Amino acid sequence: MKVAKAKGRLRGKQPKLNPRQEAHLVALHNAGEHSTAELGDLFGVARSTVYRAIQRDEARAAKTKAAARPSR
User: Fold this and answer.
1) Per-residue CA distances from 52 to 25, 42, 71 (Å)
2) Which of 10, 31, 33, 63 could form an SS bridge with 5, CB 3.0 to 4.6 Å?
3) How far apart are CA 22 and CA 42, in angstroms?
4) Is the pTM of this model over 0.85?
């Protein structure tokens, strides 16, 4: 494992969706045209993956909103 880590080959499980796909999935969800089950079928992932992608996007949006707020 030390050798694999040194070569940069030691990784965890690869994500099912790349960042571009995840952004597209969230955009479709925000448009309200598809259910989570439909989005899962469309992208070939489980509903839990869809929920997780939406949750990550909401957390990202909240973080940028908090960073944009002026501090006192």
Assistant:
1) 11, 16, 30
2) 10
3) 12
4) no
